[in-house]
Amino acid sequence: MDKEHTQGTSSPKSEATKQLLSEISYQLFKERGFAQVGVRDIAAKAGMTTGAFYYYFKSKADILNHHAKMRARWLFHQVPGMLEGLSPLEKIRQFLGSYLCEVFLDEGWELCESRMFSRYYDKRESSGLASTVRLYCEEAKEQGLLIPDCDVDQMASDLVLACRGVEYDWCLRHGGYDIHQRMFRLVDMVLSHYKKS
């Protein structure tokens, strides 16, 4: 059985081991920094061989991808239910200013930076973010909350761009400011351009 096939194995025991490796890796990444942690360090902390590690993950970057998938499940499947009952514009504000920022804070600025610039990073998270934001923009347009000629694709794109800019700047400044506050401010600036006055 080749490595790629075995990595697709998803028995409960396999998934539990994969999750444990992910948690151990993130703990080490936060303590020492992504670049300073090797596969051997992760395997040793987990009490396994490096060969066993490679049964579950192809690389350290693959762990970032796995962690991103777990975060995406929460962000794109559970959080929208938590926003039920809010206006579409408030859904956008809370989704980006509260919940997305919690993902960044959970990672910490160093891991955010490593994830953003990893050439192996799976970019699917960005398309999920754009789709969710676009859905809320469409709801706002249908409810007449936006200017009549509003292009919801452009609006969603502008909001995602603002979020990525805040994430990038927050990393450059080593997490040196309240990311929630900055995100809300920039999201509100974008929304003010599109919403009816």
From TrEMBL:
PROSITE patterns referenced in this protein's UniProt entry, alphabetically: HTH_TETR_2
Residue ranges of the annotated DNA-binding region, renumbered to this chain: 38-57
Database matches in PANTHER family: ACREF/ENVCD OPERON REPRESSOR-RELATED (PTHR43479), ACREF_ENVCD OPERON REPRESSOR-RELATED (PTHR43479:SF11)
InterPro entries according to UniProt: Homeodomain-like_sf (IPR009057), HTH-type_Tx_Regulator (IPR050624), HTH_TetR (IPR001647), Tet_transcr_reg_TetR-rel_C_sf (IPR036271)
Transmembrane intervals: none
Protein name listed in UniProt: TetR/AcrR family transcriptional regulator
Pfam families (alphabetical): TetR_N
The HTH tetR-type domain, residue ranges: 15-75
Keywords recorded for this protein, A-Z: DNA-binding
Lineage: Bacteria, Bacillati, Bacillota, Clostridia, Eubacteriales
GO molecular function, one term: DNA binding
Alphabetical list of SUPFAM superfamilies matching this protein: Homeodomain-like, Tetracyclin repressor-like, C-terminal domain
Taxonomic superkingdom: Bacteria
